[in-house]
Amino acid sequence: MGAKRNRTSQQLIHVLSFDPDLKTSPVITSAVKVASNEDLLIEILLHVPVKTPMGFKSVSKQWFSLITSPRFARRRNPLPSASALFFITFSCRSNPEYQFIPLDTSDDCRTPFRTLDFVHDPLGSGISVLQSCNGLMLCASYRARIFNRRYYVYNPTTKQFSILPQIKRKNLKYVSGMNLAFDPVKSPYYKVVCVRRSETEGKPFQIEIYSSENCIILERFCSLVEGFRPSSYWNDEPYTLYFKVEEEILEQLLMPMKHVNADELDGEEEMVEFREQVATYLVESEGHWHLIEVYSDSTCLFNVYEMALDYSGWFLKYEVDLSAISDVFTEIITNDRYGYTFNILSLVRRGKEENGSFLVLEIPCGKIVRYNFADRSVVKLWEDPVVHKFYYDDGLKYVNALPYMESTACV
After folding, report:
1. 6 with 138, same domain?
2. H-run or E-run covering 270
């Protein structure tokens, strides 16, 4: 349909260029007025399927500029929200396969891919997804050494991809992480941030930033804040570090205080034991960051915190009681009758957040369920037909689920 409409638009322009008599036709005159009125054109394009505007980009430079502009992105999808989650079904030596799970039981979510074959990776091991960000995916060579790995940015909606420059080996000790930063509301361009350990004395971390706007790599050295260490979360003022991509600076962020005071724990061994029982989940949805900490596998009660928009700190957003899930799916309760076994996959904000926001959890016996914050209702989203493979002793796969949403962004 999109290709057909694209051809029709091009034919219309062709006719207008070579047959001046038709320009006086009321129908043609109206069409020309619509095509030249950006505000009216945007209103029309907002009501067509997400893929249709992709064919219209080639109509003219004006249409291309309009469809790829942040203004259109803000109107088209002001608060990007995931329509599905996906994860690798199992690990193997070849191209991994992915399972897609719609987040709304009434939706018939089309699976965009099972395996990634948009390009032939020269290493021959296939391609896997490292991160999903507002419709774009950061991909890499599967099971390849860090020095040889190829990185790609892929749009599964448009099937477009871009090959990123390879990481330089100079002064490289190891790569701590590769992250994709893309906000279509602010800019049509994306950035890829590589954090790596440097061998240069006095400059422990190097941050490389690739920008799709000018296709260049910027290098920044960042020293750790004095006194910071991973276990500093146990100090009186626990904090973590975060990198502001737009300003290209590293800053501190205070974390929510734990419910248990470290001074109340009896010795270092008990502190270590308690720390090992804490499961921490950091989840982003619709531009908001949330922190979830489950302090013990014997409780069904925990809190969800949300980060302030100015990054000044956290505030309590939701109080979760998973007993509603145990009433429907008793397998979440372990054999000791008190413990709860689950893995938090995602937190999704949807529409009016007091009614539409929910958690997605993995529970034993190969089930993935949706827990609504407002009424504590629970719905099964998916069940693995083969529950006896690739599971741990507690019945969980501990999958790393990524959000999926459609996007018309260029890569």
Report:
1. no
2. helix 267-277
Asked whether residue 108 falls in the same domain as residue 211, the answer is: yes
Both tokens of 188, joined, read 């049509």
d(CA 44, CA 26): 20
Contact 181, 133 (CB under 8 A): yes
Question: Which range of residues forms the domain containing residue 183?
Answer: 84-404
- Mean of the per-residue pLDDT values of the chain: 76
Count helices and strands in the chain by DSSP H and E runs:
9, 21
Q: Tell how far CA 408 is from the center of its chain.
A: 16
- Rounded CA-CA distance 230/356 in Å is 35
| CB within 8 Å of 286: residues ≥ 6 apart | 79, 80, 81, 349
Residue with tokens 């290098």: 219
3-state secondary structure of 16: helix
Question: Is the separation of the CB atoms in 369 and 105 below 8 Å?
Answer: no
* 411: confidence class by pLDDT, cuts 50, 70, 90: confident
* Percentage above 90 pLDDT, the chain: 22
DSSP string, 53-110: HHHHTTS-HHHHHHHTSHHHHHHH-SS---SEEEEES---SSSPPEEEEESSTT----
- Tell me the two tokens of residue 402: 């990524």
How far is the C-alpha of 110 from the C-alpha of 118, rounded, in Å?
18
Q: Is 361 helix (H, G, I), strand (E, B) or coil?
A: strand
Domains held by the chain: number: 2
- 23, 40, 67 — which closes off a domain? 67
Closest CA to 71 of 99, 51, 41, 112: 41
End-to-end CA distance of the chain: 23
Do 52 and 128 belong to one domain? no
Quick one: 231 and 164 in the same domain? yes
**Percent residues over pLDDT 70 in the chain:** 69
